[in-house]
Amino acid sequence: MAITAIVALAAGFEEIEAITAIDMLRRAGITVSAAAIGSELKVRGAHDIVVEADTMLESLFLVPDALVLPGGMPGAENLAKSPRLDGLLRQCRDQRKVIAAICAAPAVVLAPKGFLDGRRATCYPGCEQQFSRATTYVNEGVVVDGRLITAGGPGTALAFSLAIVRALCGAVAAEAIGERALAAPPPGRN
């Protein structure tokens, strides 16, 4: 059976975080749906890059093996406003699927809904003030707590994505994908 992931795209999403996750997960052979939240497949990111999603989140009825939430502002706020995403998050939690959030998304989307209570998590620096006292903030780039993966921001996008691959496909697959992604020669060399 295919391993599945949904990367949720809401207007104002952080492009590096979303595209890196989609790319790395697909390299690992995971069936990824880039799913738009809103009324159009084309979604404008936080830095005015327009990405065409594969589908609308409203039209997906599967509970994926992983649900990935890019940050960015106002992207994370727009994710938090989606009733469909809220329902999908709850299904993923109840079925012990991977929930992965980066940048502002852990603080803006997951924390207010109680998804971080009793857990270790990180987020974009400064956003941890939105964590409840029930969450243990960890000042690291990527934090894995069971099936919950959180990360700090755009600079952690590759490590975050590889942590998702590791959770879904194992350490060997994550290391192989990481080695291939880092194997390119430095600029200026042939």
SSE order and pairing:
Layout: E1 4-9, H1 15-27, E2 31-36, E3 42-44, E4 50-52, E5 55-56, E6 66-69, H2 75-80, H3 83-94, E7 98-102, H4 105-110, E8 120-121, E9 136-137, E10 142-145, E11 148-151, H5 157-169, H6 171-182
Parallel strand pairs: 1-2, 1-6, 2-5, 6-7, 7-11, 8-9
Antiparallel strand pairs: 3-4, 10-11
Protein described:
The chain is an alpha/beta fold and 190 residues long. It has one domain: Class I glutamine amidotransferase (GATase) domain (Rossmann fold, 3-Layer(aba) Sandwich), CATH 3.40.50. Helix content is 33%, strand content 22%. It has a seven-stranded mixed β-sheet, with helices on both faces. The chain has a two-stranded antiparallel ribbon with strand order 3-4. It has a two-stranded parallel sheet with strand order 8-9. Strand 10 and strand 11 (148-151) form a beta hairpin. Helix 1 packs parallel to helix 5 (157-169). The protein starts with a strand and ends in an 8-residue tail after the last helix. The mean pLDDT is 95.
Structural class: alpha/beta
Beta content: 15-25%
Which runs of at least 5 residues are low in confidence (pLDDT < 50)? none
Order of helices and strands: EHEEEEEHHEHEEEEHH
User: What is the arithmetic mean of pLDDT?
Assistant: 95
Number of domains: 1
Which features would summarize this protein structure in a list?
190 residues, single chain, two-stranded antiparallel sheet, 7-stranded mixed β-sheet, alpha/beta, Rossmann fold
Give a summary of the structure in a few sentences.
The chain is of the alpha/beta class.
